[in-house]
Sequence to fold (269 residues):
Amino acid sequence: MSQILTRLFTGSIGALLLVGSAWLGPWYFGIAVLVIALVGQVELYQLYERCGGQAWIITGLLLGAGLSLRALVPNIFLLSAVPVVGLVLWCTFTKTRQPLMRLGATLSGAVYPTALLAFLTDLRTIPGYTEQEALVLTVTVLMLVWASDIFAFFAGSFFGKHPLAPTISPGKTWEGFLGGIGGAILAVFILNATIEMPLSIVHLIILGMVCTLSGAIGDLAESRFKRVAGVKDSGVILPGHGGILDRFDGMIVAAPLAYMYIVFIASQF
Fold:
């Protein structure tokens, strides 16, 4: 019970800070997302090290920062090519051990989690919507992923009997997954009843399903990475949760898919 209370307390404080930064404006939110993503990127590099790989951490973080701030400083996306070219030249003209592995580790860390999680910032500055609508959409995606995660956790803890992916994460169950769907749908109706939404209820329900499914995939992916690395948690920065990757694993996959659904489907129909 104490572990659950610690988890809820940490999650609540983190949620308030993140939603608060989104309310303050795109730059506040973008910086918050950047910090979260870069800490997660460092955790991923640590997982690489446990598997015998090694990344150029500073260069990877610079590249990740460039990719993360693309919505706020558009030209910085183009400048992100500079560290990539630098790494290629370094691998070519120095006697670096395992250059291919180090290059791959460095670049992949800048994409997962950093560039993918930055879709939250893209959502906060989404084209075709007003500032207020962008804020509502951002908070909606955050709430849908969190509601799905919370309901999946409790449904799995109290009713879980049938493993979802036993070879990857034995603790994940189908009951938890269905609970996550229920949590997302409940959040949709609560949000729709309390906030003026820029999307129809049908699109919101589909968005909730997208967030639940992609969030579950992101959760399983991170569990797989930790299992390969031989660790229980990706870090210790968040009491009750572990590391940043442990807390935002679902969001890393849900954010880009939710953004693409809103831009390419919900905004068109």
About this structure: The radius of gyration is 19 Å.
